[in-house]
Amino acid sequence: MSPKKCVTTGCRKFARARQTTCRNHQSSVGQRALMQTPTGRPLMQTQSAPSTGRPLMQTRSASRDLATPERAEAFFKKYEGVDIEKNRYYSRIKIMVDARLATYDADARITKGVRRLVDFEDAEKRTMNRHLMALVQEAQHDVGLPLTTPVIGLSGNIVIAPKCGRVSNGWRKGNIHRDFNSPEVSGVYTFMLFLDDVTADNGAIEIWKESEECQVNPKNSMRAIDQDNLISECVEGKAGSLYIWDARLLHRSLPNKTETDRVTIAWVVKEENGPIIEEST
């Protein structure tokens, strides 16, 4: 019987006895045979990445694991349980604010921007703080305020958005600031109670809900905000709305474009043994 040639394409050598390939091609055929499934289909091979030697599938998984997680929003809640017709603390606060506004010096404490801040006298301040703390205790459970023993960290100030005119105009905005200027320290919260309806036209608040750790330069706060891709929201609501937010959040006052003053009251709450709070304007 004459010898047969190797069946491998392009090979001119003779096949081995009782085989279909030559010695050189016998091992490659065996490997191909081992990698055949019972159905005759080849098994999936894991390729290696040229640079690392690791399987390509693992390299792709690693890239997904290194993706930047979504930034979590800081504490920001709205308490809607204050009934302006029935809530006795709201009524007492409103009476005290109206009485104070009837006697204060209209030129006192004009802030840089578009707001007037009005303090209470010491005796009035203690009474007002008791009413404000009563609202804190009402809202605490409903909004999930993460404080065990909340106390007033900064007494309540009347915040006036003056009608459009000499102090406030239709385009000027307040300075971007924090009510507690220590981004590394948590556990301090701003409370703002609306005594009038607050709209985008009569002096709402612009706030950045993910800005608690944003490092800003007071001379150009928007640069850091833009670099961190932060998005602002407008805080509006009916009279009686009570907003609570992490006091580290950046925010600013928007202009009052109407012919009527708009009034709120704001105060800061902290843990009983929390940090000392200094007022910002």
Characterize this entry briefly.
By secondary structure, the chain is α+β, with helices and mostly antiparallel strands. 23% of the residues lie in helices and 19% in strands. The protein folds into two domains: 1-34, no CATH class; 76-271, q2cbj1_9rhob like domain (Jelly Rolls), CATH 2.60.120.620.
Write a structural description.
The chain has 281 residues and is α+β, with helices and mostly antiparallel strands. It folds into 2 domains: 1-34, no CATH class; 76-271, q2cbj1_9rhob like domain (Jelly Rolls, Sandwich), CATH 2.60.120. Helix content is 23%, strand content 19%. It is built from 5 helices and 9 strands. The protein has helices at 23-34, 56-65, 88-101, 122-143, 221-227; strands at residues 76-79, 116-118, 150-161, 188-194, 205-208, 232-235, 242-246, 251-253, 262-271. The strands form 2 sheets. The protein has a 6-stranded antiparallel beta sheet with strand order 1-7-4-9-3-2, covered by helices on one side. Strands 6-5-8 form a 3-stranded antiparallel beta sheet, with no helix packed on it. The protein is elongated, with a radius of gyration of 35 Å. The model is unreliable at 29-40 and 42-69 (pLDDT under 50).
Q: Give me the CATH architecture of the largest domain, please.
A: Sandwich
CATH class of the largest domain: Mainly Beta
- What is the CATH third-level topology name of the largest domain? Jelly Rolls
Report the sheet-strand fraction.
15-25%
Strand order of the largest sheet: 1-7-4-9-3-2
Order of helices and strands: HHEHEHEEEHEEEE
Helix content: 10-25%
**What best-fitting shape do the alpha-carbon axes yield?**
elongated
Largest sheet: 6 strands, antiparallel
Number of domains: 2
Number of strands: 9
Cα Rg: 35 Å
CATH superfamily of the largest domain: q2cbj1_9rhob like domain
Low-confidence stretches: 29-40, 42-69
User: End-to-end span in angstroms?
Assistant: 106 Å
Structural class: alpha+beta
- Summarize model confidence as the mean pLDDT: 81
Note the total helix count.
5
